[in-house]
Design a protein that fits this description.
By secondary structure, the protein is mainly alpha-helical. The chain is built from 17 helices and seven strands. It folds into two domains: 364 residues, no CATH class; 88 residues, no CATH class. The strands form two sheets. Strands 5-4-6-7 form a four-stranded mixed sheet, with helices on both faces. The protein has a three-stranded antiparallel sheet with strand order 1-3-2. Strand 2 and strand 3 form a beta hairpin. Helix 2 crosses helix 3, helix 7 packs antiparallel against helix 14 and helix 8 packs antiparallel against helix 9.
Length: 487
């Protein structure tokens, strides 16, 4: 094996990596609070948040309000009661923040735990210096930064899977059945958060070509699989009915029957529009949402460690995670939404970051020998500055959307409306009509179809003044135009 590719084991102060994790955690929290306004922007985020409010009150669901057909909101079931369509894992963690009054802080903390687990996974085999690089590649990726500052479920899933990854890596060198059982429990926690991510990560363990670690991990995951099935039975009427299936009739009622396409289908791999969507997702992942050159560094790292038997098992798991998620992308629907374009590839950052650490070392050696140390340092600085620029470009495009979506409640407050019914007149009113899970707030937002008149709304909610709120043009700070239309 080339000595330049030997895992780096020279002394490297652990405090540097821990300090980096602390700085990144502060960035996530600041970004969540100031840049994203601690606001559940997308329908997905609001659905998780609504379920967290329910969990914080000690209940699974709330009674269906009067006239639910006028109060629909994206990704929230109204029949036979009010609840989120999503698995409970993300909301269960958010509920802790809701109880403490800091729900926006939960996901940044999940990001910190994921980085700590990544450090453990790399440090054990490759040393502290490579652990520093892996933490930087994972924690500095714009995709991870954004997810760790939002209310999406990806960071919670990555946190659990990073813990499972660290334990599996430890098992490959030190054994210990308990490690794989606990790793399985972590995969189980990911299963009640993002089931598909957990299953795909579990499949990556098959790359070890041994039945024992897979069986042990499955044993650790079984209680959590049973928990999710019990949750689905209580929430949706059958252990085999998930929230997506239960919500489908309402989703079709809001957006039309054409939206009833299966989220996973082999036909998505050959459908021309979906092929272009998938290619654009890959482009955005490589160019916009990761530290520049991450995939190339990972390939270098994969090659650098090919002859090191001690890291063989961890290398296989890391490579399998990346490969399995990349292949699965092609059978999923790739339409655009309110989230980061490649957010379903978030879990691949675990494998990429682990492999990129030794790849960075090799790249530094090549750059120094071919370009000279000064130019190599400049290139290195540019590589780490670009993610900040990329994230800034995303925020510039995001802020006008936040102004509009968050601005509805702000506009109602500025208009002095402290009681009444506000009819949302927008292209997609169900994205704005957020009333909480109990519909008991003084101001009620109505997502009625455009054909519904103000008089009909007034008849449905007697005794309240009725207002109409018209959506402000995107990209402006003009606010919503709100007028009283009925008493």
């Amino acid at each position: 094996m080339d000595p330049s590719l030997t895992p780096h084991r020279s002394p490297y102060a652990p405090w540097r990596t821990l300090a980096l994790i602390g700085v990144l955690g502060a960035v996530y929290a600041t970004f969540a609070r100031l840049a994203l306004h601690a606001f559940p922007f997308s329908g997905d985020e609001y659905s998780y948040f609504l379920q967290a409010e329910l969990f914080a009150r000690g209940v699974l669901h709330a009674p269906t309000p009067a006239h639910p057909e006028l109060l629909r909101v994206d990704h929230v079931l109204m029949f036979p009661w009010v609840c989120s369509k999503y698995p409970p894992g993300t909301s269960a963690l958010l509920a802790i923040g809701v109880r403490l009054g800091v729900p926006w802080l939960v996901t940044p903390l999940e990001g910190i735990v994921a980085l700590v687990a990544m450090r453990a996974a790399v440090r054990r085999l490759l040393g502290e210096r490579d652990a520093f690089v892996a933490v930087a590649v994972l924690g500095g990726a714009p995709l991870f930064v954004f997810q760790a500052a939002s209310f999406y479920s990806h960071t919670a899933a990555v946190m659990w899977l990073a813990i499972a990854f660290a334990l599996a890596v430890a098992w490959t060198t030190e054994g210990g059945a308990w490690r794989m059982v606990v790793a399985g429990a972590a995969i189980g926690c990911a299963f009640v958060t993002r089931p598909l991510d957990a299953v795909l990560f579990g499949l990556a363990l098959i790359s070890l070509r041994a039945w024992r670690p897979v069986v042990l991990a499955a044993a650790g995951a079984v209680p959590f699989v049973a928990l999710l099935l019990a949750y689905q039975a209580a929430q949706f009427g059958s252990p085999l009915t998930d929230g997506y299936a239960a919500y489908q009739p309402e989703f079709s009622a809001i957006y039309g029957a054409s939206t009833a396409r299966p989220a996973f289908s082999p036909f998505n791999a050959v459908d021309p529009p979906q092929i272009w969507h998938h290619l654009d997702i890959i482009r955005s992942f490589l160019v916009d949402w990761t530290v520049p050159g991450t995939v190339l560094l990972s390939l270098l790292g994969w090659a650098a460690l090919r002859d090191d038997a001690r890291v063989s098992g961890a290398r296989k798991i890391a490579g399998a995670v990346v490969a399995i998620f990349a292949v699965t992308l092609w059978v999923t629907i790739g339409d655009t939404d309110d989230g980061a374009r490649p957010r379903y590839l978030t879990t691949t950052l675990l494998g990429l970051a682990w492999l990129a650490a030794p790849g960075w070392r090799r790249a530094c050696d090549l750059a120094t020998s071919s370009l000279g140390p000064k130019v190599a340092r400049v290139v290195g600085v540019v590589v780490w500055v670009l993610p900040v620029v990329q994230l800034g470009a995303f925020v510039v495009g995001r802020m006008p959307q936040i102004w509009v979506r968050e601005g509805l409640a702000e506009g109602v407050a500025h208009a002095g409306i402290d009681r009444g019914v506000v009819v949302v007149r927008a292209k997609y009113p169900t994205r704005y009509a957020r009333n909480g899970p109990f519909f008991d707030r003084p101001v009620l937002y109505v997502s009625a179809p455009p054909s519904t008149s103000a008089d009909e709304v007034a008849g449905a909610f007697p005794g309240r003044d009725v207002y109409e709120a018209h959506e402000a043009p995107l990209g402006t700070q003009d606010g919503w135009h709100i007028d009283r239309v009925a008493r």
